[in-house]
Each structure stands twice: as structure tokens, then as C-alpha cells.
Amino acid sequence: MKKLFFLILTLFALNLFAADTIVAKVGKVNITEREVDIILNDLVMKQGFDPKALDHKDPKIAEVKNDIVKNLVQREILYSLASKSIPKDIDKKTDDTFQALEKKYKSKKEFEDAMKNGGTNEKEVKEKIKKNLILENYVNGLSKDIKVSEQEKKDFFEKNKDLFKEPEVVKASHILIKIDEKTKESDAKAKIDSINKELKNGGNFEELAKKYSQDGSASKGGDLGFFPRGIMVKEFENVAFSTQPGKTSEPFKTQFGYHIVKVTEKRPAKTYTYEEVEKNIASKLNMDKLKALIDKKVEEVKPKLNVQIVKKY
Questions:
Q1: What pTM value is reported for the model?
Q2: How far apart are alpha carbons 26 and 29 in whole angstroms?
Q3: Alpha carbon distance 279, 285 (integer Å)
Q4: 24, 45, 151, 193: which has the highest count of C-beta atoms within 10 A?
Q5: CB 188: neighbour CB atoms within 10 A?
Q6: CATH number at residue 195
């Protein structure tokens, strides 16, 4: 089961500086802008983007930040409930989790340096781990009472059959020589023909892509991963879907320049049966019910905790 978003906590996202801007309050607990930014950066990095490139004036980024604040507030409200039923072995579990985290580093010193660079220390990290474990224990307790019937699963399947269809997809790599203000079409054509000659003489496609391709995929040997129809420009799509797996196309032109495509795998369109997706449906419905139950409990206790949103982005 995937963890709910509001339980995503960055271990080193701690409120260490009194001068940090407070964006929300839950009783006596302050939620700070620093914590919001650290979690935002963590989410961005997990998507493969550089946090430094974020435009914090972008309305979409502001929306994400407001969602983070909302979820952090929900976390604190939930913790007020969870802290009433702390597991007896919480200290042992905290130590075990801390040790498991430490083992992910090459040495104790490297781990200590990571904590120091994150502006924290062993005591504070353990406090954060303990809080996470208390929250998880509470949520797991709630989930035990949730039931999903066979009829509910079948009804969901019947009403959402389009969710269980996969289109035909192809896995391909390419080499691109651009046509732009710096490169004439004739020069681009000559270059791609030269690369094609190297390939026919036994050259390695991935290495040649790394060496010559003028595309973001070059560092990965030109790998574009799997994609369905409708994602790439029509000329590229036609070549990719008509080339057999293991084969390499002849050079061809699109609006971006000249390409050579190598197809490594194709998967036909597929519609999954109920039996194939039953477990996924059960998990989804279980999570939906758990989320609804948590939201209900949070809303019930929220008026008693003096919740304040101090800043909106």
C-alpha cells in the first residue's frame, strides 16, 4: 500500500531556526516555510528536476506549496490523535529505523556529515522518525477496520473499464541532428548520413548517440523509453511503429531535424481482465476509504486545535 501524501516527511526538514517564517499553526506547533521548501525540493528531485530551476512565482508552484501546507497541517492534526496510542516498543523501533537509515551511508562519519549539512543531529532525526512511526501505527490501525467487498470491486471495474486498457507502445532510441539557425539542412543531412554509415559498419548505436545526438536523451544513449501513438510528431511516430524490434531505421526528417531510430521492443494494445487487476482495484478502494476516514477524523478534531493558515502562496 502506498503511503498517503501527508505522511511523506523529509527527515532533515526540521524547524531549527526561530527566525524562519511561520506559514501555519496547529495548536502550539508551528509549520515553517523552510519545511515547505525542503519537502517541495524533495518532491521535485524525485521527479528528476533541479529545484534551483523552479520559478517560485509560477501559480502551479504556489498551488503545490499550498497543498504541502495543507498536508502538513493534516499531519499535525492526525498526530494529535495518534499520540494518544503510542506503541510500547516505539523506542526500539525508532532505534532500529535510525540504524537502518545510517546503514544506507558508507560510514558513520558520512551519515553524521549528512545530518550536519541538513542542519540537524541524531536526537532530532530520531524525534522525526519516532513521530513518523507513531503516525504510521495509527493509520495502520485505522486500515485494519476497512473492508472492500467483492461487489464494490466488480462495480468499480465495470464503471472504469477504460482505466484497464493499455495502448500499443514502442520502446525506441534515436540520434538527432538538428536543423536550426546554426545548421543548414544540407549539413544536417550530410552529418546524419555519416552517422548512418558508421552504424552500418558496425558502430554501437548507444555510443554514437552519446557522441553525436543533439537531444536531451543523448546522455542515455538516445533512449526515449516506451511511448504510445500520439506522443511524438507524426513522422517520428510512423517510423518508430513501422520499424521492427532490433532494427534501425534509415535517416528521416521531422520538424526538429534528421533522425535515426532504433526500436528495441514493442508491446501490443491490451485490455486487462478483472482477475488481472482485482488486487489493484482492492488496493485503490481500500486507500480511498482510508483517506475518507482520516479526513473525517481530522475534520472532527480540527476545531479543537486552533488551526491557523498564516500564509498562502
A1: 0.66
A2: 5
A3: 10
A4: 24
A5: 20
A6: 3.10.50.40
